[in-house]
Amino acid sequence: MDTVALLLAGGTGTRLYPASRSDRPKQFLELNGERSLLRRTADRVGFADHVYVATREAYADRVRDIVPEVGVLVEPAAKDTGPALAYATHRIRDQVGSCAVLCLPSDHSIRGAFEPTANVALDAARDGFLATVGVEPTRPATGYGYIEPGGDLDDGRYREVAAFREKPDADTARDYVERGWLWNAGMFAWTPDAFLAAARDGPLRPLVDALDDGEPERGFERVDAVSVDYAVMEDTDNAVVVPADFDWDDLGSWDALARVLDTDSDGNAVLGDALTIDTADSVLASDDAHITTIGVENLVVAAYDDRVLVVPREDSQRVRDAVRELREDGLF
Fold it and tell me: Strand, helix or coil at 160?
């Protein structure tokens, strides 16, 4: 059974504004090296027999430029990961046939041996399960969903999923970490038949039916935007979790750069040119602009193009609030 890697590259990464904009989403940025996040992800799955990228029409040409060796699947509409994965998985089944599909976000940071964990997830998929990858938490993060693992399967290589847990508040997150629950990293493996059968039992049924009829546009019109977790994974009795054997970060907000970049002796993470005087535990990022900070701490300063963002590190998640207003004014 062939292995297919499916990379999701249709989002924008709003919390990394102003580096990430409507025409320059996060997956195309070179945040922690000379290669874009999408290029790094494609290189990471070199063991696969086939590689596909699912994206929206506006990004398709850029995807082809960055990873010309992959197959590009253009979603009829942007409606979150549920419809995107149903559409792409169906297309892959049509083009490849029987296979095991490894589904990955294209904009995450992974350090360490990725392939062994991926192979366990693919083995679980070949055994008929819908597999997800869980990451051991390094802190009680409130920005991630959690997975409550159940009993061991396949000699402990993976575990049953007892429950998926939504993004918690700080006290609940600490409780989850103490219980040994795992971060939901948004990585999955399944066979097309197993996934599409499960998708047909939930809100994605109109889309799966329309895909079977060769009418994807009609299918997208008949479903709402929904994550694959809500649409499939949380309701199936067939989910398993594979504990990750690598370091992971979703690079979801500016404070994440302090976790993936080298920091100076004062705890500052710098991407681009900057001068720091009496500055501590801050994130400074720019493209062409030079940033100077004096007498500040726990701050994010990001300058890209004609835009500057200044926000306390602990409020990095609130960048999405600014993007919401910018979008309403046509400025994102």
Answer: strand
